From TrEMBL:
<feature type="transmembrane region" description="Helical">
    <location>
        <begin position="216"/>
        <end position="238"/>
    </location>
</feature>
<keyword id="KW-0472">Membrane</keyword>
<feature type="transmembrane region" description="Helical">
    <location>
        <begin position="31"/>
        <end position="56"/>
    </location>
</feature>
<dbReference type="InterPro" id="IPR036640">
    <property type="entry name" value="ABC1_TM_sf"/>
</dbReference>
<feature type="transmembrane region" description="Helical">
    <location>
        <begin position="250"/>
        <end position="272"/>
    </location>
</feature>
<feature type="domain" description="ABC transporter">
    <location>
        <begin position="363"/>
        <end position="610"/>
    </location>
</feature>
<dbReference type="InterPro" id="IPR039421">
    <property type="entry name" value="Type_1_exporter"/>
</dbReference>
<dbReference type="Pfam" id="PF00664">
    <property type="entry name" value="ABC_membrane"/>
</dbReference>
<dbReference type="InterPro" id="IPR003593">
    <property type="entry name" value="AAA+_ATPase"/>
</dbReference>
<keyword id="KW-0812">Transmembrane</keyword>
<dbReference type="InterPro" id="IPR003439">
    <property type="entry name" value="ABC_transporter-like_ATP-bd"/>
</dbReference>
<feature type="domain" description="ABC transmembrane type-1">
    <location>
        <begin position="1"/>
        <end position="277"/>
    </location>
</feature>
<keyword id="KW-1133">Transmembrane helix</keyword>
<protein>
    <submittedName>
        <fullName>ABC transporter ATP-binding protein</fullName>
    </submittedName>
</protein>
<dbReference type="GO" id="GO:0016887">
    <property type="term" value="F:ATP hydrolysis activity"/>
</dbReference>
<dbReference type="GO" id="GO:0005524">
    <property type="term" value="F:ATP binding"/>
</dbReference>
<dbReference type="GO" id="GO:0005886">
    <property type="term" value="C:plasma membrane"/>
</dbReference>
Amino acid sequence: MTIGYLAAPLVGVALGALTNAALDQQTSLAVTLGAVIATLLIFELMMGHFAHLYYFELADLQQLELTDEVATLAHSNPQIDQFDRPRFAELLTLVTEGLQRVRSALEATLQLSGLLLQVTITTVILAMVEPWLLLLPLAAVPPVLVNNRAQKLLDAARDESAHEIQLSTHLVSLATTGSSAKEVRLFNAQAPLIARQRAAWSATTARLWSVHRRSALLRAAGQAWFACAYGVAVFLVVRQAVTGSANVGQVVLVITLAVQVSVQVSGALALLGTLQGVGRTVSHVEELRVAVARPARSSSADASEAVPATGEVPDGATPPGAPGAPVDGALVTASSGTVAAPAAGSPGAAPASGVPVRLTRGIRFEDVTFTYPDTDRVILDGVSLDVPAGSTLAVVGDNGAGKSTLVKLLCGLYRPTSGRILVDGVDLRDVDDAEWQARTATLFQDFARFELTIRENVGVGRLESLDVDEDLWGALDRARARSIVEKQSGGLDQLLGHGYGNGVELSGGQWQTLGLARTLLRRDPLLLVLDEPAAALDAAAEHALFERFVATADEAGRAGGAITCFVSHRFSTVRDADQIVVLDAGKVREHGDHATLMARGDLYAELFGLQAGAYA
């Protein structure tokens, strides 16, 4: 690129010399200069093309690097509360839109460097003809300043339009995605969706079009200023030629170089606009970095202080004699009442991270309150709850009662707004998030549908088993999903969905069953969670699913004191749980086993009777 950019001003010098040689009838010199000009023009035209072969690939790598960083930033926190913040969603929209332009940044940087080199050489050559021409490149300063102002107006308008862009993109996705298209067609909602999308897009384009007009006028004013300076430069040289103090070759040289300066300045302004736009994207990436930054968590020494080495029971811990409490250095389990005494260094002793190898006491909620970011609505209000190790917990309640939020807090996806969650007496805040989540096995109501191969769909539950067929088939058998795979011609490597290829589409129940296999692939979990994944199933099918899950949970509970949590609207499904918690408007209204709650005759008994009567 340097060779190509150096060739341009030398063409002007050679043209001036060629003009003088032709006028002086120096044929041999004129022919030689003509060949030199041809060679320089070839360099000018071709070197940039050859350079493009290199920097295009490098620009791809640059864009890939930034894309990877944005993906990493979006998922850098073990918690997911940032996705509930409107500004975070806007930043992701602005960045993903801007990343499409990032690959042009490298080319613009190289070209701008070449233009600066050209301007410097051109200025030196012009100064040799007429010292006043040194001022010609300086005339480009006002257009640059005006261009900066115009770009800032555009950037501000794009930021203000982020919400409409999000809405427009969402509506396009609704109208064109298979999962929603069937309802759009059946409800005849195409026209309203299109009208709403058009309104959102029109609002965006109206704002941007107005700003584009203003910025275009500003840039035109800057270019007009430089055009006047260019005209003055040409006038000075022509006047010298008329008075005889300059020859025709110098006039050709100055006109050629002045034209080049004009092109260089306009090109530089365009490149500056490109770089400023990309720079805005980089500033948004920096804002993302700040948004996901978290304060340093407590040291392991501080965390270890939560569980005293003596027999003293910390505040909030299970009292001696209760299920899951230490008794003379041993443990009474909730399910069997048997005593097991873990020796020092054996399973049951918490590692430095605070994540126990096995649960000995269980999980305790202490006055836990939670509100979503940037809202005042209380989702959980003063929840206090003991869940002994090795037990099963069922959470029931109406829609919006806070069931799914409680489960996400258990999984470490959110932090309580106030109060604390203790795992074997250690505050979950002081436990390493990644290690705790590695010991959880979950299947949510809105479980993921990975349109990849079956192997990848299940194997993502435990990446170490991704290529271990024995582990995958074992999880599929526990989820009773073997038949789904055996019916596919590709077996474990069968592609699912149509998003990225000609794959096989599964029913909702089959997707859910593969999700269960993904959950059961986890080995030695401390927490197993089913959050209404079978809401679309009938009561019998959901109960069968619960029994399969509890059978696995019982095995995990016996081996490692694991806790099983099952969330459901159906009261009959969870009647066999060790403890049932009824949430009402974010508060614990009742808790106990099925018999206790039925005897109490409160909300649980009422709703159980209503559902039982309906099924009868």
